[in-house]
Amino acid sequence: MTAHSNNTPTRSKGKVYLIGAGPGDPTLITVKGLELLKRAEVLVYDYLATPKLLKFVPKDAELIYAGKKGGECHAHTQEEINQMLVDHAAAGKIVVRLKGGDPFIFGRGGEEIEELAKHGIAFEVVPGVTSATAAATYAGVPITHREYTASVAFITGHEDPTKETSNIAWDKISTGIGTLVFYMGIKNLPFITENLIKHGRSPETPVVVVRWASTPIQQSVVGTLATIAEVVKKEKIKPPALIVVGEVVKLRDTINWFEKRPLFGKRILVTRTREQASELVRLLEDQGADCVEGATIALAPPDSWEPLDTELNRLGDYQWLVFTSINAIRFFFTRLFERGLDCRALAGPKIAVVGTATAEILKEYGLAADLVPEEFTGEGLAASMVAQGVKGCKVLLPRAKKAREVLPEILQENGAEVAIVPVYQNVRPKDYDLVRQELAEGGIDMVTFTSSSTVTNFLEMLGPERDTLLAGVKVATIGPITARTAEKAGLAIDVQPKTYTIPALVESILDFYGK
Fold first, then answer.
1. pTM for the full model?
2. What is the pLDDT of residues 326-338, one digit of tens each?
């Protein structure tokens, strides 16, 4: 996968890895590129390299933004970027230079590598999915097709402004190549179409312009060489965008898969904790949604582990170990292992969980739940345990510091002895300004809630402007308890699944927008 490398360095010399991040979707980076990101000591990244990739970089790495936006001031000049790479590598650092698309296709990667070579700096280049193929693919256009064309060309839409003459042979490419893909050509689109027509290309040749290809905010517009400049102006298409010219654009009507996904164009706010949001975000994005993560809860260990430690010393005394959340399982086992214990310590009590998702997490630790209720609520779990008989049983309930009391109360009313131990606590994230701004600008279509605490915290974090900010925003809740909390707070519920799981919530959202 490595396109080029020079000498094999000693560790003390440092090294630069020039990596193509792909067109925008963070999952389109190569496996090697992702692995190198995880090793970076210094990261120098571009505007078109998605910020979502930054979470893979070590927390102690130095991050340097070197973005360049068309028509705006650059964070650093190209000369400054070149010198940065040289200086950090010369200091013995592992430097990752992350560029959008492929670094050797209109990415000025060659210039950066020349500078490194001149200074004797070790380097490697890792290719990326170039924006041209991604833009065409995600717009439903195969840039080659044996019934339409046998050739394709990648062309810059703006050449070096200091050059006296153009390197583009308009008289050759206009009629000599089937599919033409122009990078960075939005500002020069009238000039491009004029030259193609002038040199023999039919004014009726189909054209598609694709902005932010492969991302949830992708936007595509179609026209002909004669009309596309006006279409782009009317639809206010701005960089970054690519232009695809050729008869293959006609296939878009048949092959346009990406923009036809059921949630494409919908922006959905996920209020779950960052640790838990991944599954919900993945399932929504798989259906085309643009997810905004606005966690209303952050997780922290309890103020003291002493209560749990005391109970871990006498696990054999318990008949039941009960988990009502995924978080409780994770924090419980983290502490269990820290104490030098393992799953053998749980040989005595039966294990009950609140639902199938919790049961699946338990399996990650090599354990199967003895009881999963039909109704995935505290009440449902209590009813199932009572049906099996809990009188005289000792029950250990590791849970959040603050939680609903309905489960332990029902168990105690039916003769159980319940020991409640906090294994984590919910704390509020400090900053919610970006979420408020998104709502104020009308950029959110739906907000999802997966617990009562996410509802309560969310509304309190919005403050007195909550009703104004939520005007027109649809509300989806995971189950009846969360829904009741939302309704008591004055929210109207638009989506609630019959089964209280994340996949069921996503299916209900799909049903709602499919009406």
1. 0.74
2. 999 999 999 999 9
